[in-house]
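S1.2 Input.
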Amino acid sequence: MATNYIDPEQLCYYVLKCGQEETSGPYCYNELYYLIKRNLLTPMDYVFFPEWEGWRRISEVFNPTEEIVTEFCVDEQEEETAKQAFKFVDERAEKGEELYYIATQHLVASKITTSVRISLPKSIVLTNYRAYSLRPKLGGRLDYYEFRWNLVSQGIMRLHSGADRGSFNFVLRTADWFEVSKIPYNQLIQLETLSNGLIPEYYHESNN
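S1.3 Output.
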């Protein structure tokens, strides 16, 4: 947003949803960001700030994807990979599905060659409904696997002694397993903690 810095709590915005006549607000920046993040507002809705000359589309003022993805890049995630993963999962999300975490492979830059770039960094995405493993391909295509939590029995991190990266494994109830390697240590911790919390949570919700 091209303005001088003002405390977000002091910014008062008004909203007009596309196709409606009644406005709502005022909202501070953080409240407006929450509505965007929860998909209660779309990029095609309008927003007004008293210093502006007129209403503007939210897509002209904010970049919700950029801002939301930033929240998932605090543990050394590869940002472009995280953006691609977020976009893919967001487009497939079901009603009530929320994204909990994105983990990305760490590929050492000095080892990346033209031939290796055919295999771009993979990502693991956890939502409250399922886990994804995404593998980008050249040209923007994605190969993916997805596992509903009712198919997963456990999530396990494997870390070699003295290493700062390791593998994450989904152990399936069919006795099969799926592994993604070269995940940074901090992300492995989050994946194991969250996945093993989401598995029993899924069963609790399914049985109610």
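S1.4 Remarks. The CA atoms of residues 149 and 200 lie 9 Å apart.
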